[in-house]
Each structure stands twice: as structure tokens, then as C-alpha cells.
Amino acid sequence: MTQRIAAPAAEPLTLAEARDFLRLDQTDGDALVAALIAAARQMVESATGRALMAQDWRVTRDAWPPGGIFPLPVAPVSAIIDARVRAADGSEILVPEGALRLIADRAPALIEVDGPAVPRPGVARGGITIDIRAGYGGTAADVPPDLVQAVRLVLAHLHEHRDAPGDTARLPATVAALVAPYRLVRL
User: Which CDD domains is this protein grouped with (predicted)?
Assistant: First the structure.
């Protein structure tokens, strides 16, 4: 299981940039535009499997992988924040530093487990939790420009069709083309 535990502190577009792109002069709709920026970022992240802005995620596993390596479900990953194993009595044991190695120069990133150094979970389900930091960085300048453009286009699409019924969640073809090189492929 994977869940976001800390949302990004910033978005890839500022409110002013979004207003300019949407050609909005008035500020009375700023709350809606801010919500649409976040929704657009999340749609691009969902389409690619990548975190655009720095954010923290928790990966929960039942057991350590037999081969010692497992792929992370989000990219890019910059750090392992911490890792814990739940004992049979419910207490948590910190995984020693150095027992997990992040291989971050690929997508998806991998975690390599030093088998003898990691404690074994004492429960059958969800006994291992690993917190990671994912995302291109903390500022919009860290995000690839074509992904920022995809966020702009999704924002415009959502703004234009905010009252329309039908399939407004489908990404426009231009957005699909922009995000295609970034999609994480799972085999």
C-alpha cells in the first residue's frame, strides 16, 4: 500500500501564473483557481506515476522481498526518511541506518534491502513501513517544463469544463502527448 503522508508545500503554478494563463483579471475566483491548480497537478501525477513537487509518501509492505530489491511506486525519489518494522507486540522497531539503500538514478527508484541487517516483522500484514521523499523538488523551476505545461493545460481544461456534464476527467490529447515520456511503465 502507498499513501501520501505530506502534501507538497507549493504547486508547480502560482495563482498569478494560473490567472494569467486563464486570462482572468478578477481575483474573486481565486479559491476555485487554487483548487483547480491542485487538481491539475494531481491529475498529471496520476497520469505519470510521478510526484511533481516534493512530498512525503509511506510505503507499507507485508514482508521484505526475497530478492532483496523492490521498486517504489512513485518517482522520482530523493530520500528514505525512515523505516520501521512492527513487532508481534505492536511496538515499532526502527530499521538501522544503512540497512536500506535507495537506488534513485532510475524510474522507478529501487530500495535494496540488506537482509541480515533488517529486523523481521512480527505481524503478517503491513508490518513494514518506509517513508520516502518524492518529487522533482520544492519549486516549480525543479519540475520539467513540459510537465508544468501539462498542468497548465489540465487547469485550463478543468476551468473551461467546470460546469459541464460528461467526461471532463479525460486528459486532452495534447496533455497525453506531454506526459507520455514520463509515464512509469509496469511490467
Answer: gp6 (cd08054)
